[in-house]
From TrEMBL, chain A:
Annotated compartments: Cytoplasm, Cytosol
Subunit structure: Component of the translation initiation factor 2B (eIF2B) complex which is a heterodecamer of two sets of five different subunits: alpha, beta, gamma, delta and epsilon. Subunits alpha, beta and delta comprise a regulatory subcomplex and subunits epsilon and gamma comprise a catalytic subcomplex. Within the complex, the hexameric regulatory complex resides at the center, with the two heterodimeric catalytic subcomplexes bound on opposite sides.
Any single GO BP term: central nervous system development
Pfam families: IF-2B (PF01008)
The organism of origin for this protein: Oncorhynchus kisutch (Coho salmon)
Domain of life, source organism: Eukaryota
Protein name in the entry: Translation initiation factor eIF2B subunit beta
Automatic annotation (TrEMBL), chain B:
Stored SUPFAM superfamilies: NagB/RpiA/CoA transferase-like
GO cellular component, as recorded: cytosol; eukaryotic translation initiation factor 2B complex
Protein name, per record: Translation initiation factor eIF2B subunit delta
Organism in which the protein naturally occurs: Oncorhynchus kisutch
Compositional bias (Low complexity): 94-107
PANTHER family (alphabetical): TRANSLATION INITIATION FACTOR EIF-2B (PTHR10233), TRANSLATION INITIATION FACTOR EIF-2B SUBUNIT DELTA (PTHR10233:SF14)
InterPro entries for the chain: IF-2B-related, IF_2B-like_C, NagB/RpiA_transferase-like
Keyword terms of this UniProt record: Cytoplasm, Initiation factor, Protein biosynthesis
Gene Ontology biological process terms, A to Z: animal organ development; central nervous system development
GO MF terms held by the record: guanyl-nucleotide exchange factor activity; translation initiation factor activity
Compositionally biased spans, kind Basic residues: 33-46
Amino acid sequence: MPGADKETDLTERIEAFLADLKRGGSGTGPLRGSGEMARETTYLLRRITAQARWSSAGDLMEIIRNEGRRMTAAQPSETTVGNMVRRVLKIIREEYARSRGSSEETEQQESLHKLLTAGELSEETFREHFVHLKANVIEAINELLTELDGTTDNIAMQALEHIHSNEVIMTVGRSRTVEAFLKDAARKRKFHVIVAECAPFCQGHEMATGLSKVGIETTVIADAAIFAVMSRVNKVIIGTQTVLANGGLRAVNGTHSVALAARHHSTPLIICAPMFKLSPQFPNEEDTFHKFVSPHEVLPFTAGEILSKVNVHCPVFDYVPPELITLFISNIGGNAPSYIYRLMSELYHPEDHKL
Amino acid sequence: MADCGEPDGPGNKDDITRSKNEGKELTKEEKQRLRKQKKHQKKQKERKNEKGPSETEKDKTPVSLLPPPQPVATQKAPSALPAPASAPIPVPASAPFHSSPAPSPADKPAKSKAELKAERRARQETDRAAKQPGSSSSGIKTKVPLSELNPVVKRLPEHVQVDDPAVVKRLAKKLERQQIPLRSDYGYKVSLFSHLHQYSRKAPLTQLLSIPSTVIHPSIVRLGLQYSQGIVAGSNARSVALLHAFKQVIRDYTTPPNEELSRDLVNKLKPYISFLNQCRPLSASMGNAIKYIKKEISNIPSQCKEEEAKTKLLTCIDRYIEEKIVLAAKAISKYAIEKISDGDVILVYGYSSLVNNILCEAFEKSRKFRVIVVDSRPRLEGREALRRLVQRGISCTYVLISALSYILPEVSKVFLGAHALLANGYVMSRVGTSQIALVARTYNVPVLVCCETYKFCERVQTDSFVSNELDDPDDLMVTRKGKTQLENWQDVSSLGLLNLVYDVTPPDFVDLVITDLGMIPCTSVPVVLRVKNLDQ
């Protein structure tokens, strides 16, 4: 039976994706960039939309929400998965609203007047069946995918507006977005890049080799030298893992020290982050914010006896408060950290903030 | 100052000695100047003998004339202190003579430019001599005028002028004269640091020496190798090793005939110091120790027998180590333990022998605290500190410096060691210290720096670029999961690796400096330096 086959096929794919998420996060599988993760998630969601059984928008949203919860539970630190799920939910709401013909804007819930007069837009209203809803939703998801494909290029195109010649730019660890950004600027301008290696994973080394191959003057420094060197740096350009709802960052560890050093020397701190990294989470949940990996990266097993007597920590992420950030460069342009909340309301529906 | 304690005999040696006592070494220009002044004085004395003694308002204390074979005159203090306490400058006698002939130019021929210069310098020296604290005028004036404080602009050390080819050539000539091989730089140097040396550990200087080396004492060769390979590291360890090596040198030394021990030994030490400098640039503590030794050697009176002189020098060195390092550590521990309370969480960075000492002593006095050791690549010195603390039974946590923002909210105090304390209040220490101080200040955690006074240095520096040390760049390479990303960094022309050793921390990040003289704020370092100089 084709239906059943499709379903088992679908569940298989979902299970495979979940397993991949679990493995990839623990550091043993191949490390994938967030862009790839976002794309994979969206493909999967498109497949669910196409192959799962649903009759109304409410059903579809229920299914996607369930799958989304499972996916975020598999790897809580990979926030792009949750972000994509929320984007798709918003797409469904929009398409539903458009199909109904009502020209309701998404800002309606924010108006106090509307809140009093209109009443809640409850889930029941999503029960209507529209014939073309599936096709519209899939088309919208395809648009989302094209947007995802072009994010790195969009960001890189803005490079020349921000980098002048003979600059000294500092970056931390490895970010594909920042790499593309700098390589694009290097086509027309000559500048110098200092890469902090970011122990213990030392991803800065890869970044440095990548940049120097296209002829950018690169220097690799140890993390300890960040403050020492900062006085000669003109700009700090870094990538991040997540952009939080308050405009803060959840970036690779060591970024907070860089941000503080930049503020001390009044050096601008520029974040290159595509929009799919924007997450409606706030940094207050201490126990879910940090992720730790095996401390053997910090103190290897060869250290011997003392391993049983000391506590060793190896956190992966750092919180950077929004006051330390100067500018966000994303695929839709440059923004101040104080504007992030607005962008977020455009991307996600408030009821989807908690999946 | 003159701890010989015996009345000095006449002689040029004493004067040069005492000039050295002022804390500056005689440069070529100064030697020339001295020679000119002596010539000038001879002339003046002849003139004076014509005119008769004259007194001038400049001269507060009576000047005694020495018999003609003595080309220099010494200034006698009114309280008739013994000669050692009198001013060393050979020129003061000429000052009063200058003022008298000045109004009567017709009496003598027009002075040449050199003589005028000599006069001016003579006047400067008189002023300085008149204000020598060893003399009786200490009661009269407590404030030292500005002209005395830095009479000579210090010559820039060679190791921060690598980009100047003239300086490099001069160094090469000097090393050739001393028969020490010149160490060549390694690898691509980042443009910001082209004025510093960058050596490779795989090419130690000792490979270029002939065996057996006739110029360099074997214990110095061994010491140089230990420095360049990083076997002896840390400013206290390096200073102590240096002093022990010098003790061995002194034991094996014999004065050649027709030479004085005080002058010849100092000359013998010069090539050793150049050699050690080539192996690894001298630290501030080593520089101070060397100054002390040279001063002690020069203070040996000429009639002292060789054996006696050598034992005296050995005891001097032992006393220096005992006072400045061992006892200072005890004093600092005593002060620092007052600052450690029960329940503290103390953060330390890297391996500082002094801070480790403090923590171990505090633990023995049954203070309850735990320690967080922060470490950084590529040296990973914190592991050594961790080992020693764990052995004593102190509960420790270990993180890398990138996890600093994660761990700091738990911390109640930060204890840091220092390599040197600069005269403008900046703390020079292992690279990464300034970062720790910065983040600690953001979290409002007090930062305490522990430093002995012998590491205080008169240099000033505001950033970590102008004077630093570049370590072997290959240390930054790391092999993870079987791959070494930077393996062929030399082949890529636009890639450079930077391995800094030191950095400077601004004084506003540091809350307190604990020294053997007490607990002082960072900005009081020049006060301590002046007190030290006056004592000497």
